[in-house]
Design a protein that fits this description.
Elements (H helix, E strand, L loop, with lengths): L4 H7 L8 E2 L9 E4 L7 E7 L3 E9 L2 E5 L18 E2 L6 E2 L6 E3 L8 E2 L1 E4 L2 E4 L1
Parallel strand pairs: 1-4
Antiparallel strand pairs: 2-11, 3-4, 4-5, 5-9, 6-7, 7-8, 10-11
Length: 126
């Protein structure tokens, strides 16, 4: 009995493509996410076109920042902020959610900023 295309494909043992950090194929002006979906003091990983992800944070009310979530150490994707810090789950590097600057290694540099802007109720690439 066939269980559907998704089940058939997963049965073939093909892993889902690994997401990369960044904007993927998105261009300036493209919608990133509704501003309301980004919690104050935290953030969200947003799927972008081209199998990419972007980390969008709101360190304080109305202040939005975006970063390429690829850790500069070895490229693993970081987690959204918790307890006032963005952390890489692979080796524990820690980053400031307001600036992306490295707070604790092994990463030697901070996260790469991505320009975003508020347009109506949405955050868009700037």
């Amino acid at each position: 009995m066939l269980c559907g295309l998704a089940a058939a494909l997963s049965a073939c043992g093909e892993p889902a493509p690994r997401k990369t950090g960044g904007v993927g194929t998105a261009r300036p002006g493209d919608r990133v996410t509704p501003a309301a979906s980004v919690p104050v003091g935290s953030g969200v990983l947003v799927d972008m076109p081209g199998n990419a992800q972007l980390l969008v944070v709101q360190p304080s009310s109305g202040e939005f920042r975006a970063f390429n979530p690829a850790c500069p150490h070895v490229g693993s994707l970081v987690n959204p902020p918790a307890g006032g810090v963005i952390t890489c789950p692979l080796h524990g590097s820690a980053f400031d959610p307001s600036s992306g600057e490295v707070r604790k290694g092994p990463a030697a540099s901070g996260l790469t900023s991505v320009a975003i802007a508020l347009s109506g109720e949405d955050l868009v690439l700037a």
